[in-house]
Design a protein that fits this description.
Structural class of chain A: alpha/beta
Structural class of chain B: mainly alpha
Largest sheet of chain A: 6 strands, mixed
Chains: A alpha/beta (751), B mainly alpha (211), C mainly alpha (365)
Strand order of the largest sheet of chain A: 1-14-13-17-15-16
CATH class of one domain in chain B: Mainly Alpha
Shape of chain B: elongated
Strand order of the largest sheet of chain B: 1-4
CATH topology of the largest domain in chain A: Rossmann fold
Strand content of chain A: 5-15%
CATH topology of one domain in chain B: 3-methyladenine DNA Glycosylase II, Chain A, domain 3
Number of helices of chain A: 22
Order of helices and strands of chain B: HHHHHEHEEEHH
Radius of gyration of chain A: 36 Å
Oligomer: heterotrimer
Number of domains of chain A: 3
Helix content of chain A: 40-55%
CATH architecture of the largest domain in chain A: 3-Layer(aba) Sandwich
Bound molecules: iron/sulfur cluster
Distance between the termini of chain A: 87 Å
Chain lengths: 751, 211, 365
């Protein structure tokens, strides 16, 4: 006899297995429809291969795996796809997910398929391919893709076949072992072959299945497969627990069994693998136990995936009036179904329809008396009472210190708790919350990064602008000296310029808007000077970017990469700036000299052309860099930059073609926009003072009114000009009107 | 020595006290240097608790400025997107009583929203791009704009500048992936949910609560 | 029937908190019987008064806290507190002793801290210590074991005991002032040891009737302790608690006593057997130390918790000014339980070593 280790903790709930082992595995008539959920397992949803109206044959793939940890699904019988829609699936949320609905035609016609006579003729890789394409995922637990589990890189010394079936009521594996031992043993041999013949092959079985034990044992003679029996105790069938019982080893925290050279497969999965390889039959049916006192017959059935549960219940004398809850899976870990139309999926080992007497509704929870029975029962050696305490007070830090994430949600603690506390729900809720918080944290960090990046960029921009303004002021003074008081200047005061550089981001926006507005009003001469400088600046900036890219090339650290990205972003923005200035340049103010205007009109064209040339250069450089870059992340970053540059180029080209045709409205609109922005920013700052609800509403109404007025003005202008935005502007006005109306009524209701 | 002390009890006591004070002072000073907690500066810590929506509802141009303001003594209940959870967390950090959210700055909402641009109505004015604090809007002049949903913090700063009102704040759809269990109801709630008669009946006959 | 939506597990053991409490109550019966046999009806009267007061207090507090009264009364936890306190009080103490003690136990020690499961201190022991400090005379007046009564005095019967306990009742009824309890009191074995100055342990055992009529630790006392031991074993057998805390306490007490036994000299603090079988040792070990709410949480923690209580009991018994020490030792260790918990988390499956409860997270989910 092999030494077995004791399960830590554990409980022994009433087994209730005898009811469903009286009869052999049966088959049911075809249901009227089969609803096959696409995603029945952990991992990415598979790719749909059929569409509504298609005729499919038995065994035909309906969806193929997409990505590594993804599993396909197959048609369980021949028929027509009636729809592909969202349908309630077995999930604790009771939510719906994408399902294929198949109306069987009753012919049960097979697609062409072929098995393998001798699996040793194929390489393990080929066998893994068959397993993958047969849509096989774990039939016992969470439904993890079997091929992934089997294609481990670590050397495997022990293969464990999980035949414990420790949950009460369920007998699907038990009956499978009793009726198809030969197939199971062959399946084990296939697994062993795939895993490179591990030293040890163990079948772990609880001592409450003596028939299965005897039958299986007789088929094991002359093999190196060892059948290990141990005493019945829930949850010995948990993968980690079984490994501990059979080998005394523990799967390291955060690791996989393969890390300690062990692979564990369920008997049901082993059988499915044998069917797939020897008979070429994909996984489209499984053995499911139908049990519980609310059903008059308790029995196992070979059930097609997608069979509505109501169909199973109907054939077993289900009495809805007796049944308090419908459980998919066992009484310890199963999930309740609110809707009997939910389909059977690959992991559905049991449908339990208990009466109220059998599994009474738990009474309201009493306070935890810290009796410690839960800690005695916990197979993971956690302290469920402490976890409960901290879950209640939502102290997530303590929960993690108490290893909440090592809880396997087996329910042993809730089972023994004399106060009837739904402990597992507390743990699930807390785990969900912690995961959610972690995800939010990631998002917040990213938002912070982006925000800070933007701020830095704006500051830089602002500083550059201030410097530019300074230069422009000087130039203007010179020009003024030359032109000898011919006209009045509308410059920005130097004080404002100085202040801008230092002020915070919000102020920046206001000031930038102001500056822009001023710029719009500036003389064409000044604009021309500005434009030229803009071009110069864009060029010099290009150099900087290139320099940085060079740096990046030599030592591509994270920081460098970031810098490079920043530089690209910066270049983009500065160029954008230059663009907008160029666009604004041909301002045809009637009192300005015509020659200046001509110059100005000519210059944007030149500038644009020049810009296009530089952009092209930059794109070339970036492309080279991409070709050279080895790091994926770096490459992606560069690629992004490249795309932006290309876009910029397209833009510039388009602008070039449009440049002379620039209309007056555009300018008046930008000017308007700047003014609006200032007004809004100021209004917002003012609105920070405390406001009552009514005041808020009133403010809202006023702001809406001004917005509406402006929008109407814009619309009128646009109509006069025959602009192509008329429609959009008109709907905008209508919407604003509607908003205003509702705000006004709200206000009148309030006051 | 002993006699000296016995003869001058008061000076001796003073000397002893002084000596003790010096020794303890030295120990404490040493400990303060030796076991100094190298934590993040307080602003960093506060900033890491703020939701980073960057919406400005707190009256500061972004979360970090608000974090700085808190570090300089501003009240901690001005951030509606963070809501009570954030207030509690900051109160915990600063070891102060947690106030409730200051309604002046807005109300807490349970549903996260993100901005969507109705793209066929967008006129490509780039105003929303300028308003977005986290660069979550993609677009170029006269081109259709769109929001990168995964980056949008839902601050709704882009709504106002849009001249054609084509931006909506839509609640983020909850899928199977975000679903999670709720904490179970408390015993009191459970009892209230039952009819009061049930409890009394089961008091007398605790074996049968089947009803 | 509408289909329910519930979290797994769907099956539960039939045992409820009320059942657990009932088991505890059941397990006190041997002790109660032994105390009654040796010390008269006093203990039973104590228990009844305490139980009645406990139920009234519990119900009114729950009413005041606007909680469903019957739901909480049903858990029997108040009864357990009351019974344990009643057992610990000296028999034939005046009626207001159990009343005040129970009031303190239930209202102050239990509900002011948040009710069942939230109280950091064992309510029965809080009640006991409050009484001991406030009313030392009444609290140290133990009647003599029945076999040691002087020939001229009868062991008080139920009626007589009631008269002693409820003097006003007696006065109203008969107009006479009832006899004082003083007539019946005698030193307990621990008192005897404390006040022993000149005699070797052997001589003391020969001379004092308390010991020469008993076998190990004083007549009456040893049997009461054996009875509580039996009750405790029953609870252990029914897995109401784990063996860790009581065994650790008894072992550490035995070791301490053996260490300081001093070969039975006149300054000896008594043999290990004396310490195990006298005073409240067994009541404490199996009914007080095992109180799950206020003890340490993990098994490792409970070993430490129990052992420290054992040591404290010996220290206070030997060198403190109170004759018995279980209550003080337990309350002191109640203080320390959260600290013990912090350092005694069990090693979780798959982890190399156990963590600390206050540890900051070092690994993500
Ligand atoms: S079993 Fe229940 S009552 Fe006992 S300690 Fe655990 S959670 Fe608390
Ligand atoms: S559900 Fe979690 S805490 Fe409870 S017994 Fe199972 S593993 Fe332990
Ligand atoms: S109100 Fe907005 S900007 Fe202010 S801290 Fe909160 S999320 Fe950040």
């Amino acid at each position: 006899m092999r030494k077995v280790w004791d399960l830590i903790g554990g409980v022994h709930p009433p087994e209730n297995k005898h009811q469903s082992v009286q009869e052999s595995i049966g088959t049911l008539p075809l249901p009227e429809k089969l609803v096959i959920p696409l995603n029945q397992h952990i991992g990415a949803p598979p790719k749909l291969l059929v569409s509504a109206g298609d005729i499919v044959l038995k065994g035909q793939p309906l969806a193929e795996p997409k990505g590594m940890v993804s599993v396909g699904v197959h048609a369980p019988t021949s028929g027509q796809i009636s729809e592909i829609s969202d349908y309630p699936i077995p999930h604790p949320s009771g939510m719906s997910a994408r399902c294929v609905t198949l109306i069987p035609d009753g012919k049960d016609e097979w697609i062409e398929h072929k098995g393998t006579d001798n699996f040793r003729d194929k390489t393990p890789e080929e066998l893994l391919d068959i397993i993958r394409s047969s849509g096989i995922s774990g039939l016992g637990g969470a439904g993890f893709a079997s091929a992934v589990k089997l294609s481990t890189r670590q050397p495997i010394s022990t293969l464990i076949i999980n035949a414990t079936e420790c949950e009460p009521y369920i007998t699907a594996d038990d009956m499978l072992m009793q009726e198809r031992p030969e197939a199971i043993v062959e399946g084990i041999k296939i697994l062993s072959y795939i895993l490179g013949e591990p030293d040890e092959i163990l079948i772990g079985i609880e001592d409450n299945k003596p028939q299965a034990y005897e039958i299986l044992e007789s088929y094991l003679e002359g093999t190196n497969i060892e059948l290990v029996e141990f005493s019945t105790r829930y949850p010995s069938g948990g993968e980690k627990q079984l490994i501990q019982i059979l080998t005394g080893k523990e799967v390291p925290n955060g690791g996989l069994p393969a890390d300690i050279g062990i692979v564990c497969q369920n008997v049901g999965t082993t059988h499915a693998i044998q069917r797939a390889i020897v008979h070429g039959e994909p996984l489209f049916s499984r053995v499911t136990t139908v049990t519980g006192k609310a059903c008059s017959t308790n029995r196992n059935y070979q059930t097609l995936i997608g069979t509505p549960i109501s169909h199973l219940l109907e054939y077993n004398g289900f009495d809805q009036s007796q049944c308090s809850r419908l459980v998919m899976g066992g009484p310890m870990m199963g999930l309740t179904l609110e809707n009997p139309e939910i389909p059977v999926i690959k992991t559905t080992n049991c449908i339990l329809a208990p009466t109220e007497d059998e599994l009474p509704t738990p009474p309201p929870a009493q306070p935890c008396i810290r009796c410690g029975m839960c800690a005695e029962a916990c197979p993971a050696s956690l302290l469920p009472q402490q976890l409960f305490w901290y879950a209640q007070s939502q102290n997530y830090e303590r929960l993690e210190a108490h290893n909440l994430f090592d809880c396997i949600e087996c329910g042993a603690c809730s089972y023994v708790c004399p106060s009837n506390i739904p402990l597992v729900q507390y743990y699930r809720a807390s785990k969900g919350e912690i995961r959610k918080l972690a995800a939010e944290k990631v998002n917040a960090d990213r938002a912070r990064q982006r925000f800070e990046f933007q701020k830095a960029r704006k500051e830089k921009e602002e500083a550059a602008k201030a410097a530019k303004r300074e230069a422009r002021k000087k130039a203007a003074e010179q020009a003024r000296a030359k032109a000898a008081n011919t006209r009045t200047s509308t410059e920005v005061s130097p004080a404002a310029t100085g202040a801008t550089a230092k002020s915070s981001a919000a102020d920046d926006i206001i000031k930038a808007a102001m500056a822009r507005a001023e710029a719009k009003k500036a003389s064409p001469e000044e604009q021309r000077a500005k434009l030229e400088r803009g071009v110069v600046r864009a060029e010099s900036h290009l150099e900087t970017v290139e320099q940085r890219l060079q740096d990046l090339d030599s030592e591509a650290t994270d920081k460098q990469r970031e810098q490079a990205q920043a530089a690209i972003e910066d270049a983009r923005l500065r160029l954008e700036d230059a663009q907008s200035k160029l666009k604004a340049a041909p301002e045809p103010k009637p009192d300005k000299a015509k020659e200046v205007m001509a110059k100005v009109q000519a210059s944007p064209k030149e500038a644009l052309e020049k810009k296009i040339a530089t952009l092209k250069d930059r794109i070339n450089v970036t492309e080279e860099k991409i070709a050279e870059a080895e790091d994926d992340a770096l490459k992606a970053a560069l690629q992004k930059g490249l795309e932006k540059q290309q876009e910029k180029l397209r833009d510039a080209e388009q602008q070039l073609t449009e440049a002379p045709a620039e209309s007056t409205t555009a300018i008046s609109e930008t000017e308007d926009a700047a003014a609006t922005a200032i007004a809004k920013a100021q209004a917002k700052a003012a609105a920070q003072a405390s406001m009552s609800d009514e005041e808020k509403l009133r403010a809202n109404v006023t702001s809406l009114q001004t917005r509406l007025k402006k929008a109407q003005e814009r619309l009128i202008v646009a109509e006069e000009e025959g602009s192509n935005h008329i429609d959009a502007l008109r709907t905008g006005v209508e919407k604003l009107q509607a908003k205003l109306n509702s705000a006004e009524t709200e206000l009148s209701e309030l006051s | 020595m002993f006699e000296l002390i016995a003869q001058h009890p008061i000076p001796a006591a003073l000397v002893a006290l002084g000596g003790l004070a010096i020794i303890f002072g030295a120990v404490l000073g040493f400990a303060a240097i030796k076991f100094k907690v190298e934590g993040d500066p307080i602003v960093e810590q506060i900033d890491s608790l703020l939701p980073q929506t960057q919406c400005g509802q707190c009256g500061y141009p972004g979360c970090r400025p608000y974090a700085e303001a808190i570090a300089n003594g501003d009240t901690i209940n001005k951030c509606p997107p963070g809501g009570q959870t954030t207030i509690n967390a900051i109160a915990d950090l600063l070891d102060v009583e947690a106030p409730t959210l200051d309604e002046e700055h807005g109300e807490e909402s349970d549903t996260r929203t993100v901005a969507y641009i109705r793209e066929d109505e967008c006129i490509g004015c780039t105003k929303c791009i300028q308003a977005c604090p986290v660069d979550a809007i993609l677009g170029a002049a006269k081109q259709m704009h769109t929001v990168i949903v995964s980056e949008c913090t839902g601050c709704d700063l882009c709504l106002e500048p849009c001249p054609v009102d084509c931006i909506d704040m839509l609640p983020v759809e909850k899928g199977l992936a975000d679903w999670k269990w709720n904490l179970p109801p408390s015993a009191e709630e459970q009892i209230k949910a039952l009819r009061p008669g049930d409890i009394i009946a089961s008091d007398q006959d605790s074996g049968d609560q089947a009803a | 029937m509408a289909l329910l939506k519930l979290t797994s597990p769907h099956a539960h053991t039939a045992q409820s908190t009320a059942d657990v409490m009932k088991l505890v109550l059941l397990a006190t019966i041997p002790g109660l019987v032994a105390l009654t046999v040796f010390f008269g009806w006093g203990t039973i009267i104590n228990v009844f008064i305490a139980a009645a007061v406990a139920l009234i207090c519990e119900a009114s507090v729950m009413g005041l806290r606007k909680r469903p009264v019957m739901f909480y009364l049903k858990d029997n936890s108040a009864l357990v507190t009351a019974v344990l306190l009643g057992l610990a009080l000296p028999p034939l103490a005046p009626w207001w002793i159990p009343v005040v003690g129970t009031f303190f136990a239930i209202v102050i020690a239990k509900h002011l801290y948040g009710g069942l499961g939230y109280n950091p201190f064992n309510p029965a022991m809080v009640g006991y210590v409050v009484l001991l400090i406030s009313f030392p005379v009444q609290m140290t007046a133990w009647p003599a074991p029945a076999p040691l009564y002087p020939a001229e005095i009868d062991v008080p019967g139920l009626w007589q005991s009631l008269q002693i306990v409820l003097p006003f009742f007696n006065e109203a009824l008969t107009g006479t002032v009832s006899g004082s309890i003083d007539a019946y009191t005698a030193a307990t074995p621990l008192d005897t040891f404390k006040h022993n100055t000149g005699l070797l342990v052997e001589q003391l055992y020969k001379k004092d009737p308390l010991f020469n009529q008993g076998s190990w630790a004083g007549i009456g006392w040893e049997w009461a302790n054996f009875a509580f031991l039996a009750g405790g074993c029953f609870l252990l057998y029914r897995r109401v608690f784990t063996w860790h805390a009581p065994v650790a306490m008894l072992v550490s007490l035995t070791l301490c006593a053996a260490l300081f036994y001093d070969g039975g000299s006149s300054s000896s603090h008594g043999s290990p057997l004396l310490h195990l079988l006298s005073g409240g040792t067994m009541l404490g070990a199996f009914f007080i130390v095992t109180d799950p709410v206020t003890s340490a949480t993990s098994n490792k923690g409970r070993l430490i918790y129990g052992a420290l209580i054992g040591i404290l009991i010996f220290i206070i018994r030997s060198w403190g000014s109170y004759p018995d020490a279980v209550a003080f030792a337990v309350l002191l260790m109640n203080f320390a339980a959260p600290l013990i918990d912090n350092y005694t988390l069990p090693r979780t499956y798959g982890h190399k070593k156990s963590r600390k409860a206050t540890e900051k997270k070092d690994e993500g989910p």
